[in-house]
Amino acid sequence: MLANKIRNVIDFFDTRGLDLLFLACVTSLLLIGLIMVASSTVDFAATKFSNPLFFFKKHFIFIILGLVVLSIVARIRVKFYYDYGQYFLILAIILSLLVHVPGLGKTVNGATRWIDLGFFTLQISEISRLFFFLWLSGYITRNDFDKNYLKIFIFLSILMLVIVFQRDFGSMILLFIAFIIFSFLSNLRITNLIKILSISVLPIFLLVFLYPYRVQRLLAFIDPWSDPQGSGYQIIASQIALSSGGLFGQGLGSSTQKLFYLPEQYNDFILAIIGEELGFIFLVILLTLYFLLFSRIFIFYKKTSQISEFSSNIILSIVLLMFIQTMIHILVNIGLFPTKGMGLPFISYGGTNLLLMFTYIGILIRIQIENKQTFSQAVMKNQK
């Protein structure tokens, strides 16, 4: 009885073509992000830029730009991605190589991941992930996945290799995990999936253990107190922030770890600041919002799979990229995953990732619109 009532309430939000519960979750996360970016950066921005609202203003501008991007993307027919899928793959590789062009690529802390546009730096690996899956979604719609899995894996490996040369190991891992789960859910034969995993084990092992700083991060993940002032510092500071928040938090704006103790407190470790200031109960509310968001997208994926294989492939790609990024951020912040530079979707400061999230939402809205149109046309046809 209770289950039926809950189902009826949830179905209510899905009756007008656009999923209002899904949009409400996105809006809530964006508002939380805007507030927490302001809270986590006010002291840092005042010291570095003599403007306590420096990061808040930039984040707000990116949200406005994101809404513009969303409105544009939501008007692009899904068929466009299907027809020009091969160009997205080529663009993913070319753009990833452009970061190494002198005067165009930007290097920060030894990593060359960005293209400097003057007013804005674009992190290319973020875009490359989406472009790869747009191509993959169309390719396996046209072709048998099992017969072409090695060809697909070769293209994936090329893109992963290019991303590794940007020293963006985290993006490479996210791309690889998303591909493996996508392949499994797309019914790639288990034997073929095992072959891909077997081929990948040694290269990934070498990419970790041939680079001392990655080994240090791994050791710090296992025992952060072995190097509390070095590679284990961020993990320890994050855990201190979360533990000091208690049930109800220290109060909005009252974090101590953001006061030049916890690096990247507005990006890679914003969850720790949220826990410190707003407490465990608010973290549960936040995780519930993400759960509702991802569950609604996954339900949307299951419904769309009955209408369009290509569209359902895109939805699956988007939900996996968002979900895995969210999980990595959470696990890093609570000390259950090695430190990776990965923001919390819709909340962390970072222009490229925020604009990418709006792109994801724009694509999902477009698919919802086209699904509604398909359904309406079918109803009208039956009435005739």
Describe the structure.
This protein is mainly α and 384 residues long. It has 2 domains: 23-73 and 241-378, no CATH class; 87-210, no CATH class. The chain has helices at 2-12, 20-49, 54-73, 78-83, 85-98, 124-142, 145-164, 169-185, 190-209, 212-222, 233-245, 270-304, 309-333, 351-383, and strands spanning 105-108, 111-116, 121-123. A 3-stranded antiparallel β-sheet has the order 1-2-3. Helix 6 (124-142) runs antiparallel to helix 13. The model is unreliable at 6-16 (pLDDT under 50).
Radius of gyration: 22 Å
| Most strands sheet | 3 strands, antiparallel
**SSE class:** mainly alpha
- Could you estimate the helical fraction of the residues in percent? over 70%
Number of E-state strands? 3
Tell me, what's the shape?
globular
Order of strands in the sheet with most strands = 1-2-3
Number of domains: 2
On the 0 to 100 scale, the average pLDDT is 89
Beta-strand percentage?
A: under 5%
Give the uncertain stretches in residue-range form: 6-16
Taking the alpha carbons of the first and last residues, their distance comes to 38 Å
